[in-house]
Amino acid sequence: MLLLAPVRAPAQEAATSTLSSPQAAGDDWLYAGSDIPRDAGWRFGTLANGLRYAVRNNGVPPGQVSIRVRMDVGSLFETEKERGFAHLLEHLTFRGSVHIPDGEAKRIWQRFGVSFGSDTNAQTTPTQTVYQLDLPSVTAANLDESMKLLSGMIREPRISSAAVEAERGVVVSELRESDGPQKRIADATNAHLFAGQPLADRSPIGTQETLAGARADSVAAFHDRWYRPDRAVIVVVGDADPAEFERLIARYFGDWSADGSNPTPPDFGTPDPKAAVAREIVEPGQPAALTLAMIRPWKKRIDTVENTRRLYLEYLAQALVNRRLENRARSGGSYLVATVGQEYVSRSADVTMAQIVPLGDWKAALADVRGVIADAVQTPPSQADIDREANEIEAFLAKELENARNEPGARLADDMVRAVDIGETVTSPQGQVDMFKAIRASATPQVMLDISRAIFAAPVTRVVLTTPTAVEGGDKALLAALAVPAQIRDDRLAVAKVDIGELPAIGQPGTIVSATQIPGLRAERIEFANGVTALVSNNAVEPGKVRVNVRFGSGNRSVAADAPNLLWTGDYALVASGIGPWGQNEIDQITNGRQIQLNFDIDDDAFELAAESRPVDLADQMKLIAGKLAFPRWDAAPVERLRVGFLTGYDVNDATPNAVLDRNLRGWLTAGDARWAAPDKAQIEALTPAAFRSFWEPRLASGPIEVQLFGDLSSVDYRQILADTLGALPPRSPLAPTEGQAVAFAKHSKTPMIAYHRGERGQAAAMTAWPTGGGLAAPRDARALDVLAAIFNDRLFDRLRAEQGASYGPVVDSHWPTAFDSGGYLLVGSLLAPKDIDRFYAIARGIAADLVARPVSADELARNAGPIREQVARASTGNLYWMFLLEGATRDPRVAAAALSIGEDISAVTAADIQRLARRYLKPDRQWSGVVLPQGMSLADASALGRADGRAGGQ
Question: Which spans are transmembrane here (predicted)?
Fold first, then answer.
């Protein structure tokens, strides 16, 4: 059964039957041979040609239908000369079919409100290829047309020489952009762990050589061999009649036929016990890392209740070990992070893997992790330890059950596809809860000891050490370390009684001084005498769920643009440093089995502590948040762990163009503003617990405080809960003035700014941007800029990717901050080869100039505004959407007004608006550009490569 907890099981071939009608009673092919309780929401069927399907009604979000077409073919089905063909075929299929012009499917779906890349997508893995379409605002006509388009694409994709050449360039760009240290490490690790099996060298992306050798006839032959109705599963979930889904599947796929019999899948092999045990991978600039794998042959199993019991117990056994490993890391030890995970990998192997990031001596880290595992297989866990981990699973399943009616159809469709791929079934959330209740009762210490022994024993053990410099002895040193008998490490958590009542009293309950409804919203504004304001929406959108966001202080505005800061330290260390009398372990114990969280974030105008809770836990959830603000603890260990973690990964910051951009782009765009510029190595090395406390203590004590409570509040006295917690705090003042701060934009220059990476010579990145605006004074312009960015992106995609294959993922983004009246920008960028940099800038300049000179057509405007409007309409059915938009609404009425007008603002965007904003902002004399080049290469060198490529292409 597909577990809701992150556990995977082996695959089995699901039985099929041949039916003359779209649906036959009892045709539950997914459950063949299984006693798993069926999820009655699904309807199953098999067409006469062998195609299987699963359909169901689901109204979340309203008006959407999610379609998935799964083909039982992936990279493991390729021959040596076909490596990458399954993935290349995925790309070709989504270009369209022989029945419509190349690329027209994308434009048709755009007119239906579909966003390319999020609503339409595809994925190729070693074992399957899946096509995805989420169709918003469904009508009988657009659903029919969409099924017709998908049928044509799957059955008869356009596999012409021109199409193959174009998509080869895109896939080669994807391969180039993903290449780098991490990919080399992953490929070498897979080659070692799965030696002797096809999985060792069957990455879905393929190789330069096999992609270069792909021709229309060879790709078509691959399609004809594997794309057959008896290898297809269609899943349709959405806000319509399942009988209509069945009718459309039968209409557009029922006459699909294939030549000959279904080919026998290739043999995925078994782990080779004679292959090398140890492998050292030297990768300069990368942090040291260890992988210890215990590998067993994959076994085909029928998914039954007993199989589900085994899966849950295996997950419990892993959780027990991971808790001990994390306990050791928190208290200081030989590794920064260590985790174990057990997985059934691609129908090829059953693997239990320990991933370790050592601190200093890798031998000590390996020994310590092996010691924890040795303890797990020699001494039973206590029942208290078992119950702690079982409580977490039980709480998760209860949460899924409470929110079952709000489960998005897209997730249900994806879960079904995943179940088919791994050979499992699905059951209802209630079925999950009921089964786990019985399974938990069987999880005794002796049973868990037996399970631990099973998942940590294997006929094949392999170890990989990734290191920036070669270690003395190399592979032999690894073998020697593995040969040392494991010494038991007892890092089990001590059993301690911790109660929320131990938190010191916050103060006398606060007094409400005003409570008013916000016009146009199902929400009330509450203000307490201490200045705390709250926006509360009591609704049944998510039964049994309450979302909390506590915004305090002034966030990025609390720091001057040129002042040193420690904003970069808050994400992990601030929460992990504890509350009052408790460190992180005690907080974990308080929250065990409950929906209580502490998630920290920094916004431009506030710091945020957010949580997803439930009514029964809300009072303690708010006590914990208020306690963090009133009684912060300052444990030193999380700060040191953060410092070491930053330093451990520091040298990878320039390993690829993407790494350089992730670290530096926001700082470049804001002219080096310290709030967004990344810390250098000296700043990281200088971090101390004292400096951390000095920076964060006044911010945790600062105001104002705004609370958002959205969700199922009908069973709780939320006013009293707020009064007892945040309303009881002493009045707070802002740390620093929050008005009038400006955000600068990078200075214009005639030639691009240059940065360098240490990765492959064929990798580069190019960006260009224009300053726009910010604030709440012009919300319609902010929305119109989103549409302008979508139009720009659509044109860039068509020219840079679809036509020329120069980039896998060009991007255009409009950033319009609301907490500042400046700092907005329109960013255009792409990863690409150095030879294509001049081409990128020429295309970007041409698009910008055309948007300035000519109004866009009505069709282009509709194709790009429609998907944005649909995304807003879908998102607006959930609480998270409104919470995000209404941040700050208790203090500035313009926030709510802007939130309420978004749909209208997008619909009101005209071609004249797009041209007006293009003329206002896309000015060459304000444009900033930047490139990331390989070390030692100049812009002139890149241009020369482009000219040479152009000459070669013209010959």
Answer: none
